[in-house]
Structure to design on (490 residues):
């Protein structure tokens, strides 16, 4: 039985409870819980031979694939700390994360490892990796594992340098993994009991494992005895994803906002996705227009869930209909980390089971009662009925002569124009509100401004327009505001 709310212990307990159940589908590879656990154990032994031990950081540089999960599990089995490396990030950000985290070893795809030739303690997926997991090997009994073991997740870095966020295993399980699709558990033993008692959901994760949304929903799947189906393509191919969902009888699909949902909706044909029960979106909310389209295209769809939070807080709020509800420990905060009054704008925060703080950085602030708060910088407002309206990131507020402009609010209006496929709004030269638009038809600034007038305050109407072929987004679907600002200033 599992001893603690340690992620390795929890996975091993589920693997003992449902050893023959399919745990992972990734491309051509299918692994049962027993097989996935055994391969992870063998690779943990190999990492140990590379002098990786408790507390050491191990970078994983790969797209979604079975070996990603095996490597992550192997680290946890050793009480080492996997480090998520975004294969699409800039070279300087990749180097920053490797050096900031102090990785002792690096595993991943051979072609991606060549991007960091200066890092020498590596193992590449393919023949070298398969030789490492070929022989049956067992780890010594891990008596020192605990819920205090470290879990490290780096932010996407769409508004600045990626930052490491440090968690305890137990806290990240409860805050971000353990109660999303099942009732909260009271003991680690109950995790395996629940997995054995249920059939387990078949969950298709399109988000990258290198981002929090992909990792956390993957762990939700595995700690409930489900089958994790990974999209392993090198790009987002909506037709191929629909075919994969149908072939694997996916019941839950994990997307990242409109960036994935919009092209997927366009790819669905009548009668497809008949087994899909729920769509979960993380990292960015889904627009009402796209939600309505999905409900019409997939009549059996029972729920569309916006599950939003941050690397620092875990799940902070979620919505299954109109209005967001706060997760346990979450609040909209005014000055002094005091709860905001209804109608008052503040920042979204969470206390209780949150991250310990930033790796090599500042701890989280404490309120007058000594409670630590994770406050990533999301603006929000509590409504009179207790629901929460999200207002975007504080870092994306544009300060114009007429006042503050929330970029996400303007983006929602701009994207509603029929000639707009996708858009990002930033402050251009002189903090002029600038819309960076990927159009589907001819569009002028005058036409866009006329569309926005009456829907936005006068000072929020875009005063500049930049047309591009594609909006750059991170692997988790968030707009790349650094890129957008560079476009706006050209």
């Amino acid at each position: 039985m599992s001893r603690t709310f340690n992620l390795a212990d929890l996975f091993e307990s589920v693997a003992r409870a449902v050893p023959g159940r399919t745990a992972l589908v990734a491309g051509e590879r299918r692994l049962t819980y027993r097989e996935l656990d055994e391969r992870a154990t063998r690779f943990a032994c190999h990492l140990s031979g590379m002098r990786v031990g408790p507390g050491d950081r191990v970078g994983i540089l790969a797209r979604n694939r079975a070996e990603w999960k095996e490597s992550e599990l192997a680290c946890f089995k050793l009480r080492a700390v996997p480090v998520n490396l975004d294969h699409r990030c800039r070279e300087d950000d990749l180097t920053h994360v490797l050096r900031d985290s102090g990785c002792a070893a690096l595993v991943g795809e051979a072609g991606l490892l060549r991007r960091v030739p200066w890092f020498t303690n590596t193992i590449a997926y393919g023949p070298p990796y398969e030789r490492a997991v070929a022989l049956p090997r067992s780890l010594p009994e891990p008596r020192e594992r605990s819920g205090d073991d470290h879990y490290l997740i780096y932010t996407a870095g769409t508004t600045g340098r990626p930052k490491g966020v440090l968690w305890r295993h137990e806290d990240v399980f409860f805050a971000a993994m353990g109660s999303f699709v099942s009732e909260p558990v009271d003991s680690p033993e109950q995790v395996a009991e629940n997995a054995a008692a249920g059939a387990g959901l078949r969950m298709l994760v399109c988000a990258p494992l290198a981002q929090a949304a992909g990792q956390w929903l993957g762990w939700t799947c595995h700690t409930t005895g489900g089958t994790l189906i990974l999209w392993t393509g090198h790009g987002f191919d909506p037709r191929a994803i629909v075919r994969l969902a149908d072939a694997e009888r996916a019941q839950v699909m994990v997307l990242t906002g409109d960036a994935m949902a919009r092209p997927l909706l366009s790819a669905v044909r009548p009668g497809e996705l008949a087994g899909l029960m729920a769509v979960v979106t993380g990292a960015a909310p889904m627009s009402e227009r796209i939600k309505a389209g999905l409900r019409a295209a997939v009549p059996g769809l029972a729920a569309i869930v916006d599950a939003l939070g941050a690397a620092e807080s875990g799940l902070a709020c979620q919505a299954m209909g109109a209005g967001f509800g706060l997760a346990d420990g979450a609040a909209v905060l005014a000055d002094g980390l005091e709860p905001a009054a209804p109608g008052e704008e503040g920042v979204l925060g969470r206390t209780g089971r949150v991250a310990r703080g930033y790796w090599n950085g500042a701890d989280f602030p404490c309120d007058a009662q000594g409670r630590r708060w994770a406050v990533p910088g999301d603006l929000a407002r509590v409504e009179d009925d207790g629901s929460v309206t999200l207002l975007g990131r504080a870092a994306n507020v544009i300060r114009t002569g007429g006042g503050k402009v929330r970029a996400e609010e303007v983006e929602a209006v701009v994207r509603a124009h029929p000639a707009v496929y996708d858009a990002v709004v930033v402050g251009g030269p002189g903090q002029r509100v600038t819309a960076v638009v990927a159009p589907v038809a001819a569009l002028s600034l005058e036409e866009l401004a006329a569309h926005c007038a009456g829907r936005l305050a006068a000072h929020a109407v875009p005063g500049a327009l930049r047309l591009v072929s594609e909006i750059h987004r991170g692997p988790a679907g968030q707009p790349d505001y650094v890129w957008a600002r560079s476009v706006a200033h050209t």
